[in-house]
Amino acid sequence: MNSNVNQLQPAWLRAGTNAAGELPDDRRRAALAAFLAESESLAPLLMLHSLMRLEFCAEERWQIADRRQQLRLAPCFDDLLRRWHLHLLDEGLLDSHDDDVWTLAQCAPAEHQLEQRIDDARHRLRQLMNWLDDATPLADALFNRSQQMEEWLRAPSLAQDRPPDLNLHQLLHLPGMIGDYFAGIAVSVLPLLLDEARGNVPSLLALGQTPPRLQDCLTRVAAAVVPLDSDRPLAAQLPDDSLHDAVVLSDLLSQPDPARLLTDLTAKLVPGGLLMLLQNTAERPLHWVTPAAVQAHARVGQLEAHCEHRCRQMLDEAGFSLLQSWPQADSPMAFAGQRLIVARYEPSSFR
What we know:
- The protein is of the alpha/beta class and about 350 residues long.
- About 45% of the residues lie in helices and about 15% in strands.
- The strands form 2 sheets. The protein has a 6-stranded mixed β-sheet, with helices on both faces. A 3-stranded antiparallel β-sheet has the order 1-3-2.
- β2 and β3 form a beta hairpin.
């Protein structure tokens, strides 16, 4: 029965399912799972330590907006500071009272105790990074620039002037186990999907980071691959009358205005055009206490939550119909919190 069902599936779907079933080495998967679990424990310690170093907790009781103004931190960080407070409330390290008043919980450790626990947790995390080909860039982004992060909270222009920092929402772009896994699915699916959709050689748009293996695949299967800059309007990069067969997009939810970006992309896709999206769909508390998170808020102010439901909702509102996503919820790779989503642009006049 299963073989008959498989025969009825499109070739691209069978290829994607087979590629998604080719799991990385057990030891590297175990290291990644341990890394993510340890990072969950480290995040609240770093958040509380940063609030203490910023003197947020120097007062016995405080309100977030008032204390932020007293410390001369930029208003673009209100959302980030509230995110820290709410996470620390969930972890039992802060208490919340009426009128948005906050206090340290009785069980909150002293600053010197926090520093020792943070050092121990960072050491453990460094031992759990062999799922990466080179752990140095991520370790540096996570562990070596806390003072810089605090400087940016006081002077956001310093963050805005730098290239984007590496963050935990970009794990699938780092050379290593996750990147290899998702690139394997993408290169198995894309050529077959394009063959089914178009009779001629397609023209593709590419926006965001693309794994090298997938980039090589794009140049092989497409007549033209047009790289796009997410910091510039699409209208300024493409002719008014240009239409393309597919777009390969990374990190939709990290864009300043993801809904607007999708709307702009649909204007450049033929009806029935394809979207392949590489997207982080898991919230990592440790991400929100890194220089990358501070930098993102300095540029945008408030960011979309990273969740698959929100991502699918945006695609649907923009006129995309979901075809498939990998890995499936019951896959041993689902815990990694990344998804490869394939959708087709179907405006109402085309459906």
